[in-house]
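Tutorial sheet, problem 5. The two components below are modelled jointly, 402 residues in total.
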Amino acid sequence: MSVTIPAELVKKLRDQTGAGMMECKAALQEAGGDIEEATVVLRKRGLAQAAKKSGRTANEGQIGSYIHTGGKIGVLIEVNCETDFVARTDDFQNLMRELALQVAAASPQYAKRDDVPAEILERERGIYRAQMEGSGKPAPVIEKIIEGKLGSFYEQVVLVDQPSIRDPKVKVEQAIKAAIAKLGENISVARFVRFKVGETN
Amino acid sequence: MSVTIPAELVKKLRDQTGAGMMECKAALQEAGGDIEEATVVLRKRGLAQAAKKSGRTANEGQIGSYIHTGGKIGVLIEVNCETDFVARTDDFQNLMRELALQVAAASPQYAKRDDVPAEILERERGIYRAQMEGSGKPAPVIEKIIEGKLGSFYEQVVLVDQPSIRDPKVKVEQAIKAAIAKLGENISVARFVRFKVGETN
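Model answer (structure tokens):
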């Protein structure tokens, strides 16, 4: 009995490996539809090269960087939009530069709230709860305070929640929203990294 | 019974949290010498802020970046040396630029062989072995061929093993060694990232 393999999966495997259509289909059937596994099957048969990271581009946008004077801190950031036309505008470029500068100066750890792992949130909640032990406050009040403290935590570690380094009264999110309104496309920070010399040791 | 806490560990926790010496020592004892755990203890008592990523600098060096024309590919790289004096020389800066360019063009996945996870090596070995099944070659010969294929794998995915994009007859490692000989300090690539627009989707 063979699994039904969608044509688009076969096409994806062909694009990634350069192997023939029938070979890709057979490999996918053998792998139960798992594309990684099917690639290994093809490679064992000598029909595919080691797959490079899938380079398919779903979004438009730009990669920007910022190196702080002296070269001890550097940032790489990807900001997405919907068309390359918008990605090339001065407004978009300025936003990218500001966001990279924000990451360099304020060292956020996540681009958005959804990127914060659940176990980190649980650890934070546990710490806040312990801090209020014996406070005598009723449970619902304590829960409200915990959510409030979590808000401050987001403002420290989540890029879009951080106060802007240009104007601490404004959140980074608002600068992004202003660009969205002006350019008429959805814009979001896909990812960033911040390197500081020596911190890996 | 209490654990003996080395003075330098207490100092490190103080530097990271800003809490007092006795409080840090007590927290470390409670945490059995685990600095992460001790930080949580201090925070529960309201004695420390959420620790920022430890910024202690063990090595010197620089952070460099390269954005490919059009802004669709970007690289951030950290190269370490022993003194800031060397990090600021033109030779070092040129090496950094060349290495960033190499990462952008040849897309390595690891800085050095030690960074390749053991399970990836095992997967590769398994694939090579399967490719030679039924070849009739004696086992020792097969093992030699496998090691040879692994060498080619390293040349694909490990930065220092890659052929230089400037001169494919020369490995990237040799360019680094030439800089080491000229500048008289140990130089190594600590880490790098390569972003391509849209590849996270």
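Marking note: Confidence is low (pLDDT under 50) at residues 51-58 of chain A. Full credit if you identified this.
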